[in-house]
Design brief:
By secondary structure, the protein is α+β, with helices and mostly antiparallel strands. It contains twelve helices and eight strands. The chain binds flavin-adenine dinucleotide. Flavin-adenine dinucleotide binds next to β1, α11 and α12.
Length: 382
C-alpha cells in the first residue's frame, strides 16, 4: 500500500499551478460582478482553451481523458487559489458528467464538445418549492406532445440559471406517481426556450440563486437523458457528482494557511483556545483530503460510489463552517467588517455568510447522514 501521488499526478499539479499563476490575475477578480461572484466568463474561456473544461472526457468529445484523481488535484489547486469556478462546476460536474454517464452516444457527441469548448454553460434544475430534501415529491410535469415533451412547473434555488445556456431538468413524466420514485425522467433543456421565466432569489451571501418557471416549455424527445420514467437512479448519480464537488478541501487548506499566518504574526492571548481549534482543524482537513483522493481513486478503478460522496460532502461542508467560525475569532473585531473582496481578504466573514450554500446545497447535513446511515451502513430507518 503506497499512499502517495504518481509522478504524472505531480506533473499535472505543476501544470495547473503554472496556469493559475499565469491566468488567474487581479483583472479576473476585478471583473467579477457582485451578483455572481463565483463566475468569470473570461476565466471560464481560459479554462476551456487550456483543456480543463471536461478534461475527464475522451479526446474525441473535447476532453483530455484525465482521471478522477486528476480532477481532484485540479479542484484542490483551483479552490486553494479561490478561482471562480461557478460555471465550471455546473457545466462540467453536474450536467456534463451526467450526459457522459447516462446520456446516449448521440447526446454525448452533440453536447459534450460544446461544453468542453466553453461555448455553452449549464445549470442543474432539481429542487422545487415542495421537493427539496423530499425529492419524491418532485412535480414539474413533462407531457408528450407530438415528437416532443411539454414541461410545466417550478424549480427553485437554481444556481446560475440566469446565465446558463442549458439545464438538466428533473421532471415527472407520470404525474400520478408523485410521492414515489417512479415516473421520473430527465431532460436537457435550452434555457432560452419560450415559456421559461427566471427570477432572482437573493441569498444572505449577497449573490443570487433563482426561481425558474416552466410554462409549456418544449423539449425535443431526443433530449430525454437516460431512461424514461425510471430516472430516479440518474438523479442519485448526478447528486453524487454534486456532493463530491461541494467538498472543497483546497478552500479549507487556504483558510487554514491564512489563519496560521495570522496567528504566527499576531499570537493569541495566553489561554486562548485558538491553537487547539487550529490543530483540530488541521487534523480534520488532512483526513478529508485523503478521503477525497481515495474516493477519486476508487472511481478511477470503476467503482460506482454514492454514499461515499455524502461522507465527503458532510465532513467538508461542516468543516467549512468550523473554518469560517474560527477565522472570525482569529480576525477578532475586524472579522465583523463586511468583506468587499473576492479574494483572500475578508475570506472568513464572506464564508460565514455563504455557509448555507455549503451546508444546504446538494442536500442538507441531515440528508447526508440519512444517506450514509441507510445506504452506506445499512442501519435501520429511524
Ligand atoms: C445556495 C444554494 C444553492 C442551491 N443550488 C441548487 C441548484 O443549483 N439546483 C438545485 O436543484 N437545487 C439547489 N439548491 C437547493 C438545495 O438542494 C435544497 O435547498 C436542499 O436540498 C434542501 O431542501 P429545502 O430547502 O427544500 O429544505 P427542506 O427539505 O424543506 O428541509 C428543511 C429542514 O428539514 C430537514 N429535513 C428534511 N427532511 C428530513 C429528513 N428526512 N430527515 C432529517 N431532516 C430532514 C432538513 O435537513 C432541513 O434542515 C440550492 C440551495 C442553496 C441554499
Amino acid at each position: 500500500m503506497d499512499l502517495t501521488f504518481e509522478p504524472q499526478h505531480d506533473e499535472f499539479r505543476q501544470e495547473v499551478r503554472a496556469f493559475i499563476a499565469r491566468e488567474l490575475t487581479e483583472a479576473i477578480y476585478a471583473d467579477l460582478s457582485k451578483e455572481d461572484e463565483s463566475y468569470s466568463p473570461i476565466f471560464h474561456k481560459k479554462l476551456a482553451a487550456a483543456g480543463y473544461v471536461g478534461m475527464q472526457w475522451p479526446e474525441k468529445l473535447g476532453g483530455r481523458g484525465r482521471s478522477n484523481v486528476d480532477m481532484a488535484i485540479f479542484y484542490e489547486e483551483m479552490n486553494y487559489a479561490l478561482a471562480p469556478l461557478g460555471a465550471y462546476t455546473g457545466s462540467v460536474v453536474f450536467v456534463g458528467q451526467s450526459i457522459a454517464t447516462y446520456g446516449n452516444n448521440e447526446q454525448r457527441a452533440r453536447f459534450l464538445p460544446r461544453i468542453a469548448a466553453g461555448e455553452v454553460t449549464c445549470c442543474w434544475c432539481l429542487s422545487e418549492p415542495e421537493a427539496g430534501s423530499d425529492l419524491m415529491n418532485l412535480q414539474l410535469r413533462a407531457v408528450p406532445a407530438g415528437g416532443a415533451y411539454r414541461l410545466s412547473g417550478q424549480k427553485i434555488f437554481t444556481s446560475g440559471a440566469h446565465r446558463s445556456d442549458m439545464a438538466l431538468v428533473a421532471t415527472r413524466t407520470q404525474p400520478d406517481k408523485v410521492g414515489t420514485r417512479d415516473g421520473v425522467s430527465l431532460f436537457v433543456v435550452d434555457m432560452r426556450s419560450p415559456g421559461i421565466t427566471i427570477r432572482p432569489l437573493w441569498s444572505m451571501a449577497g449573490w443570487r440563486v433563482n426561481q425558474c418557471f416552466f410554462d409549456n416549455v418544449e423539449a425535443p424527445a431526443e433530449n430525454l437523458l437516460g431512461r424514461k420514467d425510471t430516472g430516479w437512479n440518474h438523479i442519485l448519480t448526478t447528486l453524487g457528482f454534486e456532493r463530491s464537488a461541494i467538498g472543497k478541501v483546497g478552500f479549507l487548506m487556504r483558510g487554514y494557511d491564512i489563519m496560521h499566518r495570522k496567528v504566527m504574526t499576531s499570537p493569541p492571548a495566553a489561554g486562548s483556545r485558538v491553537p487547539h481549534r487550529l490543530a483540530q482543524l488541521r487534523a480534520e482537513i488532512l483526513t478529508c483530503r485523503w478521503m477525497n483522493y481515495q474516493i477519486a481513486w476508487r472511481q478511477d478503478q470503476g467503482e460506482d460510489l454514492f454514499w461515499e460522496a455524502s461522507l465527503s460532502k458532510l465532513a467538508t461542508s461542516e468543516l467549512i463552517y468550523e473554518m469560517s467560525d474560527l477565522g472570525m475569532e482569529v480576525d477578532g473585531l475586524a472579522g465583523l467588517r463586511r468583506s468587499n473582496s473576492h479574494g483572500a481578504e475578508g475570506l472568513f466573514e464572506k464564508t460565514y455568510r455563504t455557509i448555507p450554500f455549503y451546508l444546504i446545497g446538494g442536500g442538507t447535513p441531515e440528508i447526508q447522514r440519512n444517506a450514509i446511515a441507510m445506504r452506506g451502513l445499512n442501519l435501520p430507518k429511524r
